[in-house]
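Table S2 (continued). Query chain:
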Amino acid sequence: MSFWNNTKKTVAKAGSGLRGVGGASGSALSASDPEFNEQEQRFRNLERRAMRLLQETKDYRGSISGMTTAQRALATNLTAFLLDVQRPQDYQAAYRQATTHIDQTSQPQFDEVYVKTVLEPMAQYCGFLPEFNKAIKKRKGLHDDLDKARRVLAKEQAKAAEDPMAVERAEMDVQYAESAYNTLNSALIREIPKLINSR
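Corresponding output:
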């Protein structure tokens, strides 16, 4: 999933040097970009389903292991239970041998294949989800930064006669904030469908 490497670089760089702009709340973030909102909703649905599936793959592995261990224990206990009342029968020995083979040979072979073909790929895929969450959170922070930069610019423009250079600096901050926000926003809109389609 190398496609995400470029987006991680974008996330790391976006907004790293924004002068004098801190977080602010109360922005109209959710209504400002319907295209992103749609992709975020798709990501949230994927995240919920993927994490549930990952847990189910782990539970299934544990269930198989537990079942084969229980089968072997049952065969051992059954033989011990009947030993004092009758001679061991061939079918009892065959059952015990079969459960021992399943527990000691078949189950470990199955487990090795299952981990390699199901559990590890699923865990690797789910491992990308926190990176996307981090990027989405950073996008909100950049949006808040942009809102604050615009408010600062409006204040500086209202008193432009006092310090024309302050207006110029505030305009540069707005341009930088817009660039950082738009870069990450576009990357997420582009990369979320790739993540969804790479299943």
